[in-house]
Each structure stands twice: as structure tokens, then as C-alpha cells.
Design goal:
Layout: E1 9-12, H1 14-32, E2 39-45, H2 49-56, E3 64-72, E4 83-87, E5 97-105, H3 109-119, E6 125-133, E7 146-150, E8 156-157, E9 173-175
Parallel strand pairs: 2-3, 2-5, 5-6, 6-7
Antiparallel strand pairs: 1-9, 3-4, 8-9
The structure holds inosinic acid and magnesium ion (MG).
């Protein structure tokens, strides 16, 4: 299936995204303001790249940034939680405060894998921040500490999220009626 740009409907505009991200930034800033140890904000590539960049700019904290590249096997409707780390963190996070920033928690399998992976790295604390969650598709429930929006069962694109590799650069979150990735 091919998506034409004129068929994309806006779910969250650039303005709505920025407003929510500003609030999330304030919340995280308040929670971490008295922390003495290093704070490492980890962006999960590639989907979180825009959210991560905007969120970091809303943190009035001294932080380090790092990235973890993931690629999942198969199509999204068969999310198995079997993901491959295509690019690992560049530094150790032992005894540090880690905030993992993701684009979306769909079935939760990827996030579950990430949480287990991070636990073995022995951070002092581990918090999860996701722009979106789609509870209709939950297989593995995960606690999201900082959440942007809860969405209905749409396949969404834009603002980092892709359909077959495309549309990550849209400045808004959009959807197309009747779209499914496994056709
Ligand atoms: P999960 O393992 O099912 O939670 O899927 C997580 C990953 O699937 C996300 O990090 C996204 O990369 C991708 N994904 C899930 N839902 C969507 C969507 O609606 N649009 C684009 N990518 C999605
Ligand atoms: Mg992702």
C-alpha cells in the first residue's frame, strides 16, 4: 500500500505536540531538579529522534544524551519483542539516572525488551518516557513514567514515526484511514 500525502489526516499538530512536550519537560525537570548524579537521556532510534530533540530542549537540567538504535524483525502487526540493537549506547550507565525516550508503546514488547536490557546495565534509576501509547494493542503492559498522549488504534506516522521507512519528517502526527502495515 502506498500513502499519498493528501490522504494523511492530522492527529496532533506541531503546536499540540510542542505544548504537550513543554509540559512533559516541566514535569521531568521538577522530578530531577535535586539529583546529584549524572542524568543520561537515551533516545531510541530511529522513531524517537524528533521527540527526543524537542524534549531535551525543554529540560532545565544538566543532562547527558545518548542513543540506542533498534530494529525490529518482521512487520509491526507481528511485533514479537525480538529486536536487534543496531547501535549501542556510547557510555556505561552504571549508577546513573537513565531516562529512555521512545516514540510509541504499541504491544509493549519492544519496551519490555528495552527495560530488561537496561536493568542488566545497573543504572541508579530507570524511567520511561514515550510520546504515544496505544492501549488497544497491549500484549505486555509497561509502566510509562512520562507519557505524551494515549491514542486509539491508529497506525500513526510523522514526527519520527514511519510507514515503510517514509514520513518520519512530517512535523505532525498523522494517520490514514484503513491503513495497515501488513498488507
Ligand atoms: P511494540 O513492540 O509493539 O510496542 O512496537 C514498538 C515499535 O513499533 C515502535 O517503537 C514503533 O517503531 C513501531 N510502531 C508501533 N506502532 C506504530 C505506529 O502506529 N506507527 C509507526 N510505528 C509504530
Ligand atoms: Mg520505535
Amino acid at each position: 500500500m502506498e500513502i499519498k500525502k493528501e490522504n494523511i489526516k492530522v492527529l496532533y499538530s506541531a503546536e499540540q505536540l510542542q505544548e504537550r512536550i513543554e509540559a512533559l519537560g516541566k514535569q521531568i525537570t521538577a522530578d530531577y531538579k535535586d539529583v546529584k548524579e549524572d542524568i543520561i537521556v537515551v533516545g531510541v532510534l530511529r522513531g524517537a529522534f524528533l521527540f527526543f530533540a524537542d524534549l531535551c530542549r525543554q529540560l532545565d537540567l544538566t543532562i547527558h544524551v545518548d542513543f540506542l538504535g533498534l530494529s525490529s524483525y518482521g512487520n509491526r502487526t507481528e511485533s514479537s519483542g525480538v529486536v536487534k540493537i543496531t547501535s549501542d549506547l556510547s557510555t556505561a550507565v552504571v549508577d546513573k539516572h537513565v531516562i529512555v525516550v521512545e516514540d510509541i508503546v504499541d504491544t509493549g514488547l519492544t519496551m519490555q525488551y528495552l527495560i530488561e536490557n537496561f536493568r542488566t546495565r545497573k543504572p541508579k534509576t530507570l524511567k520511561i518516557c514515550s510520546l504515544l501509547e496505544k492501549p488497544a494493542r497491549t500484549i505486555q503492559p509497561v509502566d510509562i513514567d512520562y507519557l505524551g498522549f494515549t491514542i486509539d488504534d491508529y497506525f500513526v506516522i510523522g514526527y519520527g514515526l514511519d510507514f515503510q521507512g517514509k514520513f518520519r519528517n512530517l512535523p505532525y502526527i498523522g494517520y490514514v484511514d484503513g491503513l495497515d502495515d501488513d498488507e
